[in-house]
Sequence to fold (135 residues):
Amino acid sequence: MFTLREKFTAKKLLTIVLGFSGVLLIITKGDFSQIHLKNYLVDVLVLLAAFSAALFSVLSKKVQFEPCTMVSVFYLTATVASFISMILLSDFALPKKETIVLILVNGIFINGYSYILWIKALKISDAYFVTPFVF
Fold:
């Protein structure tokens, strides 16, 4: 909201709190004693990943590119960065034939097309209204 310069109200704060509460409720299955912060490095990395994903999502609203172009540029950049990381940090292995279809479905529909729809939704409505649907 601060990034998008949308008006911050009590209703918007309540929406955010309910969204995060719902996520915690689902993750812990209603037993909040299940939350254990023992491995601080993993906890910090998960929070940084969530923050990065949220920032990417929210800043997508401000970008002036057409959503298909923006998602294409993002995934092309991510593919190159992932390939370089894979070469430097792990062993290269081609996926098995039976998993290639699943990888393509995941990349094109679950990630690619859903981001296009998400960006269009963000451009039509306020982020506080649309964002809880991600949870």
Observations:
- The chain has a mean pLDDT of 79.
- Residues 36-126 form one domain.
- The helical segments are 10-28, 40-59, 67-89, 97-124, 127-130.
